[in-house]
Design goal:
The complex is a heterodimer of chains A (518) and B (329). With 518 residues, chain A is an all-alpha fold. Chain A is built from 22 helices and two strands. Chain B is α/β, with parallel strands linked by helices. In chain B, a hairpin with a 5-residue loop joins strand 3 and strand 4. Classes of the chains: A mainly alpha (518), B alpha/beta (329).
Chain lengths: 518, 329
């Protein structure tokens, strides 16, 4: 039979353990809440400056956890004493220090005649006390409510951008995508998208897009996209050249069709079969590495294309395996360029578009173009420009001058005119002949082999007189620009939305930007 | 043993209730004061009653003497009262053979219950005549020390508003009182009852309900009441908290208190708590018991400074603040 003092001591021990458990729980809740709050506060305050990102945030997290952990352990270094437990029982059960006094007299015997009765009464009382009821865990409810509110706030902050801004994804998702602009400045690979954005970046979602918008200037991003788009155009043009070169050979009809329908994989397969198998092609390429110049730049790519086209276009001669291998390589390069654009499209579809300079639009509409009575300064527009068009945002266009005639024009075109003879009365700025020439580019592509019977496969480009002045001085951007303009369907593609067409059209019409006027 | 202890507590409470009920037949209101007066008697203490004239200070003491079957004497303190008038004096007496001898004529202090009415009207010299009687329960007169018959219970009264021509009790004298009780002015209902009881042909009279021996036994029972160290520690901490010289003392204490309570104050707290615990039929003392006797035990032992007096700050206010700021056991 358990004696009265034991009954009291057992109850005190149970309450003591429960008190310690609750204390641990409470400290843990406080520890987590305070830690999370400090961490978030630090990130919110440091985030925009870049200190709250990357490795720093990890270190910050570790330091906070370590500091709070030490405090946590320090605060829990002692268990509650038995006297504390007895006092808690008295307080909770409103026993007016009965258990405390009894436990004291159990520990320190006293000769008062009242003590045995006190111990007996207290023991009877302790039998009826349930520590679980005495120390309910209801105190944790407010903490949980606070935690729920906090997490709801946190979730809302993730879903909406009001809380943490566009760098939230880095904090919580921990996405790390390294972007190297080196690929833009010095393109070595045909797959520019992968070079810039990394593998599988087209699958990134909206939350990750902020990484790019934060790490790079919007103009850089637009530039990257333009590069990709331009190169895709270049690639398509090259493919067209190859297709045209092969067009005269009936045995390659299917290849030509595949090339023109952009079924490049099929085209390469067919060509490979003609040559004798894919792996061999690679071998040939390796052995002929000296002859085939891997495209270290876009101009190199064009040179390769021209070389291949000229070899393939020589109807009179047999196509040798080497030429086919080079054609295959060129097609493969072109496919990479087009794939980059597809990846970019996918990426933009996923993330909703990267940054685009808002100031490329002018409030001038085509209807107002040439209205000398109402000259209008170009104003920034919040409407973003489309980056999903095949021609991209193209390259930098120059200003055209009001009423300034095109000096070299012998066809009556006027500077500033976007379409023939219309005046650029509403526009201001110095004439930039080369760029202005781009605006007025009207190319006529004539295959001389078809017209005069020559069969050298070369294309001859004819320009209006305005364009000729810059014809010899082309660089990559001019080339791309010309290509895009030569492709008159750039805004007539059926898949191009009307709104984007309008944006593109307005862009070229209202190309001015006050800062660019020279 | 347990049954005996339980019986002792029951008897104690029963007798206490009888005394209280009997006193309440004559006294109207101030039930708490009545309880504390009896508590003080059972805790071997003395009581200083303070109240405006006519609230029943003297009546309470007289009634208590009637109920307790104790010898009672009353001393009306006046400025010309001499110590000898209190403790007694030797007078020359002549026996049958004509021989003259000194014979000690006991003063009014030689009673079980002494009412020192308006004690602050006598000079300090006379007031001090009570010191030895209250503390040592003995009187020295004519070169001889005489023991007082137990129990000795001094009840002094003083009028707080009529201060002209009075001699406030010195601190040493004040410290001898276990409790200082304040009688509140009766409420309207209580006044009606007072009028009804005292304006009839026959006024109600209290009867003896307790023998002297009962009181002494009850005193012993009270002394046997155990108090656990944590509770005692609480009383000590409360007492120490009244000292302005202690580091980290309460702001009010630092500002208004000149001297804190003496060890007698802690004794008073504990003794009073023990009796209160018995009255509540408990066989242990709780923090609540300590708090219930805190004000009567300590209010006259905390000496305030001039600033407190000028700002009319009372000790009760400071003590209540200390209770709030001191964690209990």
């Amino acid at each position: 039979m358990i004696e009265n003092p034991q009954i009291i001591t057992i109850l005190i021990n149970r309450v003591r353990k429960r008190l310690f458990f609750y204390r641990v729980l409470k400290e843990l809740v406080v520890f987590l809440a305070v830690g999370f709050f400090i961490y978030l506060s630090a990130l919110v305050s440091l985030g925009p400056s870049g200190l709250g990102r990357g490795v720093f945030s990890s270190y910050l997290f570790i330091v906070i956890v370590a500091a709070l952990g030490l405090i946590f352990i320090y605060r829990l270094r002692y268990m509650p004493s038995k006297m504390d437990a007895a006092s808690t029982i008295d307080r909770k059960a409103r026993l007016k220090d009965q258990v405390l006094s009894t436990y004291w007299f159990i520990r320190k015997p006293h000769n008062s005649p009242f003590i045995p009765m006190l111990i007996e009464k207290t023991a009877q009382l302790c039998k009826t006390i349930d520590p679980g009821r005495l120390l309910s865990i209801n105190w944790i409810i407010p903490y949980c409510l606070v935690a729920i509110l906090f997490f709801a706030f946190y979730i809302a902050g993730i879903q909406r951008s009001f809380f943490l801004g566009d760098w939230r994804s880095e904090i919580f998702n921990g996405a790390r995508v390294k972007v190297s602009l080196r690929a833009v400045s010095d393109p070595k690979s045909a797959d520019l998208f992968t070079d810039v954005f990394g593998e599988n970046s087209e699958d990134l979602d909206l939350a990750d897009s902020s990484l790019f918008t934060k790490q790079y200037d919007e103009n850089d991003l637009v530039g990257i996209q333009d590069e990709i788009n331009m190169r895709a155009i270049l690639a398509r043009d090259g493919i067209e050249k190859i297709a045209k070169a092969l067009d005269g050979r009936p045995e390659y009809r299917e290849v030509v069709d595949a090339l023109r329908t952009e079924k490049l994989d099929d085209a390469m397969k067919m060509l490979s079969q003609v040559v004798g198998g894919g792996p061999q092609i690679s071998d040939n390429l390796k052995t002929n590495e000296g002859e085939y110049n891997s495209p270290s730049s876009d101009s190199q790519f064009l040179e390769n294309i021209d070389k291949v086209a000229s070899e393939l276009g020589n109807i009179g001669a047999e196509i040798n395996e080497e030429a086919l291998a080079q054609a295959l390589q060129s097609i493969e390069d072109a496919q990479s360029m087009i794939d980059s654009q597809d990846q970019l499209r996918q990426f933009n579809d996923n993330v909703g578009g990267l940054g685009a300079p808002p100031d490329q639009l002018s409030p001038l509409t085509a209807a107002r173009f040439g209205d000398q009575a109402n000259p209008t300064e170009a104003q920034p527009s919040a409407e973003p420009i489309s980056v999903n068009a095949q021609g991209g945002t193209l390259f930098r266009q120059g200003a055209v001058a009001r009423g300034e005639s095109d000096q070299d024009s012998d066809e009556g075109h006027q500077a500033g005119s976007a379409s023939g003879d219309s005046e650029a009365a509403a526009l201001e700025g110095a004439a930039v002949p080369r760029l202005e020439a781009n605006l007025q580019l009207e190319t006529v592509r004539i295959n001389e082999s078809e017209s005069d019977g020559r069969n050298d496969g070369e294309q001859t480009w004819f320009y209006s007189p305005t364009e000729k002045q810059t014809g010899e001085d082309v660089n990559f951007r001019d080339l791309v620009g010309r290509s895009s303009y030569s492709n008159s369907g750039v805004i007539d593609q059926p898949e191009t939305p009307i709104r984007q067409k309008k944006i593109i059209r307005d862009y070229f019409i209202n190309i001015h930007n006050k800062g660019e006027i020279r | 043993m347990s049954k005996s202890a339980s019986t002792q507590i029951d008897v104690f409470q029963e007798k206490f209730a009888k005394v209280k009920d009997e006193v309440s037949k004559v006294m109207v209101g101030n039930a708490e004061v009545i309880t504390l007066v009896v508590t003080s008697l059972l805790a071997k203490g003395h009581v200083l009653l303070e109240g405006i004239p006519g609230v029943g200070k003297t009546k309470l003491v007289q009634t208590l003497a009637d109920v307790l079957d104790l010898t009672f004497s009353r001393i009306q303190f006046t400025p010309d009262l001499m110590p000898g008038d209190i403790v007694g004096t030797n007078i020359v007496t002549e026996n049958e053979s004509g021989k003259k001898t000194f014979e000690f004529q006991a003063g009014p202090i030689f009673a079980n219950m002494v009412l020192a009415d308006e004690i602050n009207r006598a000079t300090p010299k006379t007031q001090s005549a009570l010191l030895e009687a209250m503390q040592e329960n003995s009187v020295s007169a004519g070169g001889e020390t005489r023991k007082l018959d137990q129990p000795v219970f001094v009840l002094a009264t003083q009028n707080p508003i009529e201060m002209e021509g009075t001699y406030p009790l010195p601190e040493a004298q004040m410290d001898r009182f276990l409790f200082k009780l304040k009688l509140d002015f009766p409420t309207a209902a209580e006044l009606h009852t007072i009028v009804d009881r005292t304006t009839q042909k026959e006024e109600p009279k209290a009867t003896k309900v307790l023998e002297k021996g009962d009181i002494l036994k009850m005193r012993d029972v009270a002394r046997d009441m155990p108090i656990a160290k944590p509770i005692q520690d609480y009383a000590v901490r409360l007492a120490l908290a009244t000292h302005p010289e202690i580091k980290d003392c309460h702001e009010l204490v630092k500002k208004y208190v000149r001297f804190g309570v003496s060890p007698r104050g802690i004794q008073a707290l504990i003794l009073g708590s023990k009796v209160i615990a018995l009255l509540n039929k408990r066989n242990h003392v709780s923090s609540e018991d300590v708090r219930s006797v805190l004000l009567p035990s300590l209010r006259h032992r905390v000496l305030l400074n001039f600033e407190a007096e000028s700002e009319l700050v009372e000790t009760d206010f400071i003590l209540n603040a200390l209770v709030d700021s001191t964690p209990d056991a």
